[in-house]
Write a structure and sequence with these properties.
The chain is built from 19 helices and 36 strands. The chain is of the alpha+beta class. It has an 8-stranded antiparallel sheet with strand order 17-18-19-20-28-24-23-22.
Length: 826
């Protein structure tokens, strides 16, 4: 049955648990690595909705009560005009140097004639957006621009992209200093004090960018706000917000009514067709709180930005004819399917849909945003009109795809409805030359309309399933690790899942491919899979296998012929072979073996390992030869530089060999099991002698006085290998408790920063709840207090409220290691 208004089948939904955590960013729309919407502020109406990269994903919500309009979601955008172009509009001219210049290099009259000339943007070779190659640690750029006098009384915004930290000056006055971070397409208002330094005619924009490692990039320009009055300046008052695993609940007060808004992503891993259905819900429910009856209407406005990489791309929209649905569709005109790859990019192929069931009190419109908004302002409804922007360029006229629901008279009982945001990416992944459809359409016999229709027909059942799932997950997480741990797991759930894409390989294998969000954009990275795996091991081992299948195929097909696993299979969404610049031999070998053993433990058999026995043997023998005292090679904790003799990496190798012995035993290969298990025990005894530093174990074998988290020991405990004596972990735990800072345990003795996923793995080594919580509370406090409002960063400083890098990554699935321990222990 299709329904959205107040019917006998409607019911009010409430959060199953009250959550106290103030999220650094709140998940709203979480479909996959590309289709993503988050609130980066305490109140849903304080700022625009953002993609996890920080790019605006325009969406606003307004409730009309007795003729008064209250904005409850997002922030209105008004048309902007670019007056100093970024590279997308123009390959701009500049002077630049990679040698540190004189101290007055930002001044207007500085003589930069000896600097090189080049075209912006600047960046590392091979990067899609880089026009001029920049591969040194630093670059200094001076750009001469002309600014007309008549724009100086307008609001001006600087747009900039940087990798890594950047300082930007106008006529010697600093307007941007990002510190050590990297972001793309940031739009920031130029403060009034800075505008005083801008003059009609010639101006100098000077920028210094530092590349801390990996890719480099620099681009910038200036926009002005065109004359356009915002229509929804009055806001509702937000009174509560709760983040649960599949849903985010908001509560507002406005004009004598209570409004609840519920964002639901039915990412339920026991039903892969439902989990991958690319449809999220925005439910609204309204009731009077003052004993009166009120006339109420709700307005939801979306934007083609959801289908653009950058706002300059021309778009085309349409109202799709359907007897049962309002279907508002938009996408770019070029439609270059799978046409780009990388990290700070958004999808610009396929189509976004804003949808709702058709009924008499629900209306829709597509058109210039100010025109559509005026329709709603007149009487709380829309004219079912289609009048898109003539140019299809959102820098000239912002386009709205809007749905309005006139709820009529609302009293003490809830009146409810919902809209849906859906995305049809047509093809999701290129896998060794084959373009693969999304899992929900793996056979090519589904349409996005059929998926949206199913989402409507199953609405009530899905809401109940999500409510039941959230309640059960929170109950299990609470029992495993306490209230703070449960709230961290709730916030991590959608982030971890939606950083993956599920497709089916040509041979029928599931491919559950991660994207290295805000890292380097790699696809299917083994050392991202490893920390994220506990969530999928806990809920669906077929997905856990999907994390590994592409790596097994890569080696077994002969496309990768080294005696250890590849690091990745490409750069998202192109999975055609490793693109990362270095191998991680011991790291990835140990990861693959440990996770294969964990799958066997969860399933009670080693059938999956048997399918891949030959390559598992090759990898294990490599670890036997190279793993005890690793050479100078990359590993996942190399943020402060990589080095030889890494002790935690050695633990991983030993756990990998022990895992092989464990699997051999399950397969009845008793001689093989005994050989490799004994080898792991022999290496562990040698490790204990080499690593010992009195009251703890070192960071590297050759550096006394150092330490590191030995989180790789977790498999010794969870899978009961008994390769290391229990005393090793307990000695480490006692030492770690003396090294904690305000916001957690540092990763090792080199720096004060940490990785939150590894802390939780380390904490799971303890044997009592009280000590476990001593490690969890500082993490909880960091997320609750951090000043960096981004989707959960797993890499942050333990001595202050800031993160170092990374956000929205799948590795927070590793928080479920404590729950996995409980499940394996049953």
């Amino acid at each position: 049955m299709l329904f959205a208004g107040c019917t006998s089948e409607n019911m009010a939904y409430q959060p199953s648990v009250e959550v106290d955590l103030r999220a650094p960013a709140y998940p709203l729309i979480t479909i996959d690595p590309y289709t993503s919407g988050w609130s980066f502020t305490d109140n849903l109406y304080d700022a625009p909705i953002h993609h996890w990269t920080g790019q605006n994903q325009q969406m606003i919500g307004v409730i009309r009560v007795d003729g008064e309009n209250y904005r409850f979601m997002g922030e209105e955008q008004v048309p902007m005009q670019m007056i100093v172009p970024t590279y997308e509009k123009e390959n701009w001219n500049a002077r630049y140097t990679t040698q540190k210049p004189d101290v007055d290099w930002t001044a207007e009259n500085y003589d930069a004639s000896s600097w090189l000339e080049g075209k912006g943007s600047f960046g590392s070779e091979g990067r899609l957006k880089a026009i001029t190659s920049w591969t040194t640690p630093d670059i200094w750029v001076r750009r001469e621009v002309n600014i007309d006098a008549d724009v100086l009384n307008r609001d001006l915004f600087i747009e900039y992209s940087h990798d890594d930290g950047v300082e930007i000056y106008i006529n010697g006055y600093q307007i941007i200093n990002t510190g050590n971070s990297a972001r793309a397409d940031v739009m920031q208002r130029i403060p009034d004090e800075a505008k005083k330094h801008i003059r009609p005619g010639k101006n100098i924009i000077a920028a210094h960018c530092n590349d801390g490692g990996g890719e480099s990039y620099l681009d910038f320009g200036i926009w002005m706000r065109k004359d356009n009055e915002q229509k929804f300046t009055q806001t509702a008052r937000q009174t509560n917000v709760n983040v649960l695993p599949t849903r985010t609940f908001y509560t507002f007060e406005a004009g004598g009514v209570q409004l609840d808004v519920i964002f639901t992503a039915p990412l339920l891993m026991d039903n892969l067709d439902l989990m991958t259905r690319p449809v999220n819900y925005i439910t609204y429910q309204v009731k009077a709180t003052d004993g009166k009856t009120h006339d109420v209407a709700v307005y939801i406005e979306g934007s083609p930005q959801w289908a653009q990489d950058v706002i300059h791309q021309p778009i085309q929209s349409e109202m799709v004819a359907d007897n049962n649905l309002h279907l508002l569709k938009s996408g770019t005109k070029t439609q270059q399917i799978l046409g780009k790859s990388g990290d700070n990019t958004r999808i610009d192929w396929g189509y976004v849909y804003f949808a709702a069931p058709k009924q008499s009190n629900i209306t829709s419109a597509i058109g210039i945003a100010s025109d559509v908004q005026n329709q709603f302002l007149q009487n709380g409804s829309l004219g079912n009109t289609y009048s898109p922007s003539a140019k299809g360029d959102l820098t000239e006229n912002l386009e709205a795809l809007s749905i309005a629901h006139n709820l009529g008279k609302v009293g003490a009982d809830y009146s409810t409805g919902y809209v849906m945001l859906a995305y049809d990416d047509i093809y999701s992944i290129q896998y060794f030359g084959d373009n693969l459809r999304p899992y929900w359409n793996r056979n090519g016999n589904q349409t996005i309309t059929s998926q949206i229709t199913a989402a409507v027909n199953e609405y009530g059942a899905i809401m109940k399933k999500c409510a039941d799932f959230d309640a059960e997950l929170m109950k299990e997480a609470l029992a495993a690790g306490g209230k703070e741990y449960a709230e961290l797991c709730a916030l991590a759930y959608r982030q971890a899942i939606s950083a993956h894409k599920l497709v089916q390989a040509p041979n029928g294998d599931l491919l559950w491919l991660s994207k290295e969000n805000f890292s380097n954009g790699s696809i299917g990275t083994v050392d991202v899979t490893y920390p994220s795996a506990p969530l999928f091991l806990y809920y669906n081992t077929e997905l856990a296998k999907g994390l590994l299948n592409h790596i097994f195929y890569y080696s077994e097909s002969g496309k990768w012929n080294k005696p250890f696993p590849a690091h990745d299979v490409g750069t998202y969404p192109l999975a055609n072979g490793q693109t990362y610049g270095g191998d991680m031999p011991v790291e990835e070998g140990g990861n693959m073996l440990a996770l294969t053993a964990a799958i066997a433990a969860m399933e009670g058999n080693a059938d999956y390992a048997a399918k891949h026995w030959d390559v598992l043997t090759i990898w294990t023998d490599y670890l036997v030869e190279k793993g005890l005292d690793p050479e100078n090679q990359l590993c996942t904790d190399d943020f402060a530089g990589h080095f030889a003799h890494n002790i935690n990496l050695s633990v991983k190798a030993i756990m990998g060999i022990a895992s092989y012995g464990y699997l051999a035993d399950m397969l009845g290969k008793k001689d093989v099991a005994e050989k490799y298990t004994n080898k792991a025990k022999e290496m562990a005894q040698e490790w204990m002698k080499m690593a010992n530093d009195g009251d703890h174990y070192r960071l590297t074998f050759d550096k006394p006085g150092t330490w590191s988290q030995k989180y790789n020991l977790i498999w010794n405990k969870l899978l009961k290998y008994n390769v290391f004596p229990e005393s090793v972990a307990q000695k480490e735990i006692a030492y770690y408790l003396t090294k904690q800072n305000q916001y957690g345990l540092p990763l090792d003795s080199r720096r004060n920063y940490t990785k939150s996923d590894w802390i939780i793995w380390t904490a799971t080594l303890v044997d009592d709840d009280a000590t476990f919580k001593k490690f969890i509370t500082p993490i909880y406090n960091f997320y609750n207090e951090t000043t960096d409002r981004v989707p959960m960063s797993d890499w942050y400083n333990t001595d202050n409220k800031t993160h170092v890098g990374f956000q929205a990554r799948s590795v927070v699935g590793g928080y479920y290691i404590k729950m996995l321990e409980k499940k394996l222990g049953k």
